[in-house]
């Protein structure tokens, strides 16, 4: 069923809002296109279903086929956050996802992946925002392509494996990063924005991937990708990422991306307009302009101290640990290797250290006696509201903006943390006993704490570089919006942190939680109520989120 008037929203590679529509009409031509897509999808499924059932009539080849995916419900709360330059608190998070991927091998050495993801979501802006008559808070329903990739196995002789992937596919190069990091594909070059999404430290990219592994210790990915998430679109980037694993103790990775090294439209990638002049030299004869194109080098490393003990014959020393416990990892990148700008014009990107995000992470013990007494009080402290003295709606009676009074401080939060710390200790002991005597495993799969420093003096946003109506330029967003000034972005948003934990039950059910102050943005179906700058700016800003999922 297609409604005549619908709200639509398209999300590309990493969840960035790249195009929004407001209450528009689907015309007959669009209806026809949608019907053809549905018909083609049904026909394709019927065809491949028949192939799977029948196989090759000569008995020489049978297509293998299997589905995968998940359904999930996401809930949580932005405890303190920013929206369009004004501080707010207590905004709910409520999303639902359904993901289906089909994987089949029509012939030897060829695998095809087709996937679709649907999402139910709500507008995430303060109830004080001005809404159009046709707007609503939700729910909204949207769908995006999750994967459309063909993989060709070129070589696999035991020591060397080489495969080629073509299409649109999810990609992740740092296996240990749970929230922060993954800088090569989740950042801009000029300006150096960063994005994160809850339980999705992955990027969907469009292009060609050539992957090779050798002797089980070396891996290399060469990628030629087309920009499909951020304006200007269709520029080509070349990326090479290589990693080396040493005795399950040390994993080192390096990479470099030549972002937008081939431009689909040089006038858009490097706008040659007066307001975009970077420098003038040679008595005014040579003029350079700010550009979206640049070079992004990356380095990462993971140290696994548990890998040392087998080498020393001390396997039993930390036998109570999970397989991911005690890992220490990190990642750093330079978002634009070359400086741009001089003192006589816009001096925007003249300090290299302000373009380097650095992330460190550590996996804590998952043993119930060491994890429950830590996780439960952290969660209790996080989800408990501060003692506040505010009126019934939480609004200032004069200005109409949200009023946040910390007169009573954190007493309630601390009390709940102590109470749940005691409950966590008792729960950890009970879980350990159940595991020991009843073989019921209640330990977490992973507990990861991550910390990031990024000393950019500008807002972490991308409005100015995507605002096509007012000439998109590779320049930072305006810092003086609402109650915010450049000082807020220069001093308060440099540090980010994240506490992530997960548990798998019966092999398919997953429970995931996160408390963080990261680069999350609020989602909106209307441009007037969209904030392209991250929601967590000040030190007091943070949120908590949980997910219940079933994977198959």
Please, what is the average pLDDT?
82
Helix content: 10-25%
Q: Strand tally, please? A: 20
Global structural class: alpha+beta
Kindly list the characteristics that best describe this protein:
single chain; 552 residues; alpha+beta; two-stranded antiparallel ribbon; 6 helices; 15% helix; 39% strand; globular; disordered N terminus
Please provide a written account of the structure.
There is one protein chain. The chain has helices at residues 28-54, 266-269, 308-311, 368-383, 411-438, 486-491, and strands at residues 5-11, 17-25, 64-83, 86-107, 110-121, 140-156, 160-171, 203-214, 218-226, 236-246, 250-262, 277-281, 286-289, 294-303, 328-333, 357-363, 446-454, 495-505, 509-517, 542-551. The protein is of the alpha+beta class and 552 residues long. A 16-stranded antiparallel β-barrel has the order 3-4-5-6-7-8-9-10-11-14-15-16-17-18-19-20. Strands 1-2 form a two-stranded antiparallel ribbon.
């Amino acid at each position: 069923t297609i409604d005549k008037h619908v709200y639509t929203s398209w999300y590309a590679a990493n969840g960035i809002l790249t195009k929004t529509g407001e209450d528009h009409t689907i015309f007959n031509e669009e209806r026809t296109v949608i019907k053809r897509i549905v018909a083609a999808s049904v026909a394709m499924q019927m065809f491949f279903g028949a192939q799977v059932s029948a196989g090759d009539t000569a008995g020489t080849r049978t297509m293998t086929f299997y589905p995968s995916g998940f359904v999930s419900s996401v809930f949580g709360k932005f405890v303190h956050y920013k929206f369009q330059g004004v501080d707010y608190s207590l905004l709910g998070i409520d999303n639902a996802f359904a993901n289906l991927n089909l994987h089949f091998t029509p012939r030897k050495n060829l695998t095809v992946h087709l996937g679709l993801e649907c999402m139910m979501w709500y507008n995430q802006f303060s109830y004080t925002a001005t809404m159009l008559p046709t707007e609503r808070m939700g729910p909204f329903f949207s769908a995006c392509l999750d994967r459309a990739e063909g993989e060709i196995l070129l070589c696999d002789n035991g020591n060397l494996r080489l495969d080629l992937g073509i299409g649109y596919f999810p990609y992740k190069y740092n296996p240990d990063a749970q929230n922060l990091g993954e800088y090569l594909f989740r950042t801009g070059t000029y300006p150096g924005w960063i994005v994160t999404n809850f339980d999705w430290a992955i990027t969907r990219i469009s292009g060609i991937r050539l992957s090779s592994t050798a002797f089980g210790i070396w891996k290399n990915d060469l990628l030629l990708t087309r920009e499909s998430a951020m304006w200007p679109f269709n520029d080509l980037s070349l990326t090479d990422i290589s990693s080396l694993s040493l005795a399950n103790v040390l994993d080192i990775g390096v990479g470099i991306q030549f972002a937008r090294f081939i431009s689909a439209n040089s006038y858009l990638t490097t706008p040659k307009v007066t307001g975009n002049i970077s420098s003038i030299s040679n008595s005014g004869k040579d003029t350079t302009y700010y550009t979206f194109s640049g070079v992004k080098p990356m380095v990462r490393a993971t140290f696994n101290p548990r890998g040392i003990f087998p080498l020393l014959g001390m396997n039993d020393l930390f036998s109570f640990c999970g397989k991911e416990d005690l890992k220490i990892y990190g990642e750093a990148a330079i978002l634009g290797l070359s400086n741009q700008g001089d003192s006589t014009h816009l001096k925007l990107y003249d300090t290299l250290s302000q373009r380097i995000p650095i992330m460190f992470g550590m996996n804590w013990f998952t043993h119930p006696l060491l994890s429950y007494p830590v996780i439960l009080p952290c969660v209790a402290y996080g989800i408990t509201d501060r003692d506040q003295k505010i009126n019934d709606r939480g609004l200032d009676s004069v200005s109409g903006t949200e009023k946040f009074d910390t007169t009573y401080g954190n007493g309630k939060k601390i009390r709940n943390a102590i109470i749940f710390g005691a409950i966590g200790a008792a729960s950890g002991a009970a879980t350990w006993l159940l595991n020991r005597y009843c073989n019921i495993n209640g330990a977490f799969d992973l507990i990861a704490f991550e910390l990031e420093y990024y000393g950019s003096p500008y807002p972490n946003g991308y409005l100015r570089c995507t605002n096509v109506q007012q000439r998109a330029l590779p320049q930072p967003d305006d810092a003086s919006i609402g109650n915010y000034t450049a000082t807020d972005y220069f001093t308060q948003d440099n540090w980010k942190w994240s506490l992530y934990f997960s548990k798998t039950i019966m092999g398919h059910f997953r429970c995931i939680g996160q408390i963080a102050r990261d680069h999350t943005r609020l989602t909106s179906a209307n441009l007037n109520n969209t904030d392209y700058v991250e929601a967590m700016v000040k030190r007091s800003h943070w949120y908590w989120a949980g997910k219940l999922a079933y994977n198959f």
